[in-house]
Amino acid sequence: MNAIRSLSSAKVRVQCRTRATSEKTCSFDGVTDATGTYKILVADEHEHDICESVLISSPDGSCQKIVQGRERAQVFLTHNNGMASDTRFANALGFERKTPFAFCAQLMKQYEEVDV
């Protein structure tokens, strides 16, 4: 059972703001593909900025509520961080369905039965 579904054509934005004043410095928009993945080309160096991937909107009317805590993910957009690649990855972002999948009650019951 997989309670997660990839969402195609969701709008996502990478936005950066200054560390000192939180003033917006730039933003770049993109959309997710069939796998729920997005690739956004970001220009310039942002070593002194706080940059985040942010959910903007869902194309699915039954899945439009942005999950609190999954609405944004910080991304470090600088070459001055020891990483050899220019590719950066953000944590998963997410929307919540209006109506849960039919198997969700069964899945939640399984988690309740597990001793931690």
Describe this structure in words.
InterPro entries: Pollen_Ole_e1_allergen (IPR006041). Belongs to the Ole e I family. Keywords: Disulfide bond. The chain is mainly beta and 116 residues long. It has one domain (11-113). It has one helix and six strands. The strands form two sheets. It has a four-stranded antiparallel β-sheet, with no helix packed on it. Strand 1 (11-18) and strand 2 form a beta hairpin. 9% of the residues are buried.
Task: Set out the fold topology.
Elements: E1 11-18, E2 24-31, E3 49-57, E4 65-66, E5 72-75, E6 95-96, H1 104-113
Antiparallel strand pairs: 1-2, 1-3, 3-5, 4-6
Short description:
Keywords: Disulfide bond. Helices cover 9% and strands 28% of the residues.
Task: Provide tags for this entry.
28% strand, two-stranded antiparallel ribbon, 116 residues, mainly beta
* Terminal Cα span: 21 Å
Helix content: under 10%
Averaging pLDDT over every residue, what do you get? 86
Order of helices and strands: EEEEEEH
For the biggest sheet, the summary is: 4 strands, antiparallel
Q: Identify low-pLDDT runs.
A: none
- Number of spatially distinct domains: 1
Q: How many separate helices?
A: 1
- Largest sheet strand order: 2-1-3-5
Pairing-aware structural class of the strands and helices? mainly beta
Specify Rg, calculated over alpha carbons: 17 Å
Number of strands: 6
Shape: elongated
The percentage of residues in β strands lies in 25-35%
